UniProtKB/TrEMBL annotation:
PROSITE patterns: PIPLC_X_DOMAIN (PS50007). The lineage of its organism: Eukaryota, Metazoa, Chordata, Craniata, Vertebrata. PANTHER family: PI-PLC X DOMAIN-CONTAINING PROTEIN 1, PTHR13593. This is Phosphatidylinositol-specific phospholipase C X domain-containing protein. GO terms for molecular function: phosphoric diester hydrolase activity. One of its GO terms (biological process) is lipid metabolic process. SMART domains: PLCXc (SM00148).
Amino acid sequence: MAETESLADWMSNLNEKFTKIPLSQLAIPGSHNAMAYSLDMDSSVLEPKKLKALDKMFSTFLRPIVKKWGTAQEKNISEQLDAGMRYFDLRVAGKPESSDLFFYHGLYTTMTVKEGMTELETWLRQHTKEVVILSFSHFKEMSDDQHTELTSYLKELFKTKLCPKPQVPSLKDCWENGYQFILSYDNRNVDDPVLWPRIEYWWADNSDPKEVISYLNNKKQIGRPEGLFVAGLNLTFDGNDMLLYLTKSLKEKTMPAYLLLLDWVKEQHPGSDKESINIIAGDFVGVNSFAQDIIQLNNADSGS
C-alpha cells in the first residue's frame, strides 16, 4: 500500500523545478473511461451501435457481455486519485426516464454525474496541492438545457478552484491562485472563461498493443500539440470482437498487453520538444506500475 499512498500527493512532492513549468510539459497519469467501474446491467445498451440495435430483443444475453467489455476501470474515483491519476476521461449521457445525468461506456453507470463529481471534489479538498484535468466529452442523449445545467453545476461545485483558460498553468500558478481543476468541455455551443476546449487525445482504435505503440510513435514523429494532450494506451474492441470473444473481457485482453505498453512508457520523456509526451491514459489504472512509471519520467528528466 505504501507505494499507492505516496502517489496520493505526488504533485506536491515533485522536484521544485517541475512546479514552475506548464502542466503540458509534465508527465501525468490519466484514466481512460474513468467512471466505467460501476456499469448498470439494468440500463439499456448505448453503444456499440451493432449491439444497441439488438438490445431490445436480447438484453438478458447482451448486457452481461457489454458490461464485461465496457468495464474499463476497477478502482473507484477516490482510489484512482490515491493511485496518482490526475486526468479523467468523463463521458456523459442523459437518460430518457431520469432527470439525472450519468456516465457511460457501453451501458450507463449506476452512479450519477453529481455523485461522481462530489466524491472527486471531497478528495481534492483533502489534497490541496493536487491538480486534476477533467475532460468531459462524447455526450449522448443530452439537450442544450442539460448542457447548461451540467456546466452550471460544475462551476458551482468547483467555484474559484477552476483554472481559467487559455494559458496552461504551472503547479506553482495553481497553488498561488488556489486552482485545482482544469475543466475541458467538448461542446461547441458552450463558451465560458473556465471551460477549456477539447483536449487532443491520441487514440489508436486498435486491439493490438504493438499497433497502439506504432500509432503513438507515428504521432510523435509528426509532433505534439503545444498545450495539454493525451496519449491513449487503451486497447479498443468493437461489437464484432465482443461477440467473437464471448467468454473474455476487456480486462483479460488489456492486462497482458501492459507488459509491452509500459516498456513504451519508460522510453518517453516530458518537456516541450516535438517528441515529448504529456498525459498518458489507460484502462484498469491503479493495479500495476502504470502511474509510478509515468510520474517517474518527471524525475528521470530532472538532470536535463
